[in-house]
Amino acid sequence: MKNSNLFRGKDGSNYLFPFILVTSLFALWGFANDITNPMVAAFKNILLISNFESSLVQFAFYGGYCFMAIPAALFIRKFNYKSGILMGLLLYSGGCLLFIPAGNAMNFIAFLLAYFVMTCGLSFLETTSNPYILSMGAEETATRRLNFAQAFNPIGSITGMLIAKELILARLNHSSEVERIAMRDTQPDALIAIQQADLEVVSYPYLILGVVVFAFFLLFFFARLPKTANHIDPLPLKATVKKLFQNKIYIWSVVAQAFYVGVQIMVWTFIIQYAEHELGMPKAIAQGYNIVAMAIFVSSRFICTFLLKYIRPARLLTALAIAGGILTVGTIFLPNAPFVEGQYFGAYWGLYCLVAISACMSLMFPTIYGIALKGMGDEAKLASAGLIFAIGGGCIMPPAQGWLIDVTSSVRISYILPLICFVVIAAFGRWVGLKSR
Questions:
Q1: Of the candidates 173, 198, 232, which is a domain's last residue?
Q2: Which residues, 6 or more positions from 428, have their beta carbon under 8 angstroms from its beta carbon?
Q3: What is the pTM of this model?
């Protein structure tokens, strides 16, 4: 099929320009996701809080997704795609700008509120952009069009990771947690000065991001976007919800998606803590391993997409979950040599297993998504809001892992939670595979 047909509707309309505009949003929310993961470790050291408390960053971040998914779907159902995008960009920008007063107040709860508002906007953007991209052209090219748009999400993710590594983690004061605790008792004013400077370092990239996102808001406000078919469920809302709750595959897909998002965020969030505690590796260098994990994630997505030509989705999902579980066991039990300054690679076997888990996660979200919505027809768009709601797994499980680290004083042991998640996903894949025979 020629690429020229990818953005052309049956009536001859050319959707290339609006497609480029909306696709830019995929990179924007990818950036927000992956500049945030390293902030869990940063806030812990800056504010001298526990692992559980610092992981509340993820609770607030993914809580916004969870809280706003259904309202966003209803908003788009009532209005249109452009209105949903504008609302999402306004909330996204507003949340970023809230980092400035939060930093000035040195108030962790204010930072959590900023993350929550920001991701309420991201929830709007994700709930809106996916079906809008699907509608920008012929139905037979919709899936290929969406896959093309999603390819820009990792570009934003890797950029966010690099910004976190070079403009935040590398510029934070390098005093250790032990040194800061000692300063709290002997030099409280000096500690406060260091904390203020560190919080400025954290807040500044979010200020720039807020300005950039507001510029996108203005761009979309004045842009003439096509009023494509919304593909919104024409059935009464109550009847649609009742039908969804009677669909066992859909319900268990939402559960599996929650466990998947939970395992993804836990694996990526605590790579820094694992490298710090198990190897004695500095945060900025540990963030480099996070970037490697994302590169593996992106590469594996193309490989797994190719494998789907020959392997059924449920079967591949099961195999990936089992492999992820095995690598998680390696993360828990395999040894790591102590980090030596200047030696970025060594006998870090547990850390290598942790990074390699990303290869197994790459295709899980879209695979579960596809299993859940297969054959739904008109109900699919409201059902997709339930799968965005399942991102709430990312707000519950990281704090649970942080609490486990605090209780056991071991980052290794905390990876029992990702292992449990992989077991659940493998069981789901196996169950769906048996039902589809």
A1: 232
A2: 252, 253, 255, 256, 317, 368
A3: 0.77
